[in-house]
Amino acid sequence: MTNFTPSPDHAAAFRAALGLFTTGVTIVTAKSARGPLAMTVNSFTSVSLDPPLILWCPAKVSARHDAFVTAEHFAIHLLCDDQVDIARRFAHQGEDFSGLSCREDFHGVPVIEPCLARFDCTTERIVDAGDHSIVLGHVHRVTAHEGRPLTFHAGRFGGFGDAP
Q1: Which residues form the Flavin reductase like domain (predicted)?
Q2: Mean pLDDT of each 10-residue bin along the chain, 164 residues long
Q3: CA 17 → CA 5, 21, 57, 60, 113, distances in Å?
Q4: C-alpha span between 137 and 119 (Å, rounded)
Q5: How far apart are alpha carbons 49 and 99 in whole angstroms?
Q6: How many CB atoms lie within 10 A of CB 74?
Q7: Which of 35, 48, 64, 137 is deepest in the core (most CB within 10 A)?
């Protein structure tokens, strides 16, 4: 058992404890001045059904942060359990879409196909949140498929057992 008060001295332990929460894995894409851009994200959640709102949180230290928080439109892609390679690719860099089935939507946002679900969004608001920003998005279109989700737990990718 570990017990501590979160502080800069315990940053690694705090991060490890947060990593015990199993999350889904998403790719966020946007059009930027540099061209199509993507980022692997597990800080994604639903906010409201009416109006349809979601949020995600890019780290301010990311070289891609500013491009995403200034983007008017973006897409959130929920990944399938066989898309670990895509998650790893966009965790390290965000401009190499080679070999992917990808197209631009009517806002110029790159969309990756297939994926478990995609939420096409307009940026509603950016909120400062410590070493991250909270990007609140208004969902204007959803595309969903059947499949098994890609998950992330304790620093490792995995699946979700017997999901449909």
Answers
A1: 18-159
A2: 86 81 91 94 93 96 96 97 95 93 93 96 97 97 94 83 52
A3: 12, 8, 18, 21, 33
A4: 9
A5: 35
A6: 25
A7: 137
pTM here is 0.90
Distances from the Cα of 156 to the Cα of 22, 24, 70, 79, angstroms: 10, 12, 30, 15
List the beta strands (DSSP E) in the chain.
Answer: 23-24, 26-32, 35-41, 44-48, 53-56, 73-78, 102-104, 110-112, 117-129, 132-144, 151-153, 156-158
Is it true that the peptide bond before 114 is cis, omega within 30 degrees of 0? yes
Residues 67, 34 contacting (CB under 8 angstroms): yes
Report the distance separating Cα 7 and Cα 9, nearest Å: 5
